[in-house]
Amino acid sequence: QKEVEQNSGPLSVPEGAIASLNCTYSDRGSQSFFWYRQYSGKSPELIMSIYSNGDKEDGRFTAQLNKASQYVSLLIRDSQPSDSATYLCAVNLPTNAGKSTFGDGTTLTVKP
Amino acid sequence: GAVVSQHPSRVICKSGTSVKIECRSLDFQATTMFWYRQFPKKSLMLMATSNEGSKATYEQGVEKDKFLINHASLTLSTLTVTSAHPEDSSFYICSARDPRRLNGGVAKNIQYFGAGTRLSVL
After folding, report:
1. How far apart are CA B46 and CA B59, in angstroms?
2. What is the mean pLDDT of chain B?
3. CB-based burial, B27-39: b 16+ in 10 Å, e otherwise
4. Which of A2, A9, B58, B116 has the fewest C-beta atoms under 10 angstroms from its C-beta?
């Protein structure tokens, strides 16, 4: 089992729909969780960080954390074609001393 | 968000040349930086963890004599690809870990990425 797992996709949604991206992690003691967006040929860009259970909203993005179930998700409302990218989930596992462990990413395509 | 500057953005060089890539943390002092490489349509692959004032920690399978890392200050880490060959052609990305804490004392531990360096070895 990988330490951080994401569905590889590709995930395709129509413009205006809600895109839901999921991530599970192995270490129950993890404290910090991040979502990055990576456009093709570019480096990852941080879009959300979340540290406590519940929802955190930032514009069209909502991160949801459930530590008991060991998953973190990202919802993108009113998806736009410009949201088409690979989304990386990152978790700071206690065993890795503050270093983020990245999932392999989920590729999202938003169709006009 | 915090800014990490990486340059050059693109390098084209002849086989056997050494190439140096710089990564600078502009907003905070980064005791820890990371170097990744990424092949087209593949996942990020961590190469090494760069620690200010001490030796880098390399991931399994990464040749430390091939990929020299220096982290001489709290804002600068460099990666030198020595005697580059065509198989070293890749997208190299650095990141810096933000050591600052949120209100309440929780460490942010966010990694901010540089823009990446695309290396092409002819």
Report:
1. 7
2. 92
3. ebebbbbbbbbbe
4. A2
**Given this model, what pLDDT does residue B2 score?**
65
Spatial neighbors of B105 by CB under 8 A, at least 6 apart, are none
H or E element in which residue B118 lies: strand B117-121
Residue A51: both structure tokens together: 């540290």
Say whether B109 and A98 touch across the interface (CB within 8 A): yes
pLDDT tens profile B42-73: 999 999 999 888 889 999 999 999 999 999 88
Distance CA A106, CA A64 (A): 16
| B67: its two tokens | 């990929």
Distance CA B53, CA B34 (A): 14
Amino acid (1-letter code) at residue B43: S
Q: In this structure, what are the phi and psi dihedrals at residue B88, rounded to the nearest 5 degrees?
A: -85, -5
Instruction: Please choose, from the candidates A46, A20, A99, A31, the residue with its C-alpha nearest in 3D space to the C-alpha of residue B113.
Output: A46
Chain A environment of B6 (Cβ under 8 Å): 43
For residue B36 the two structure tokens come to: 């990744």
- The count of other CB atoms within 10 Å of the CB of residue B42 is 12
Query: B interface toward A at CB cutoff 8 Å?
Result: 1, 6, 32, 34, 43-44, 49, 91, 93, 97, 102, 106-116
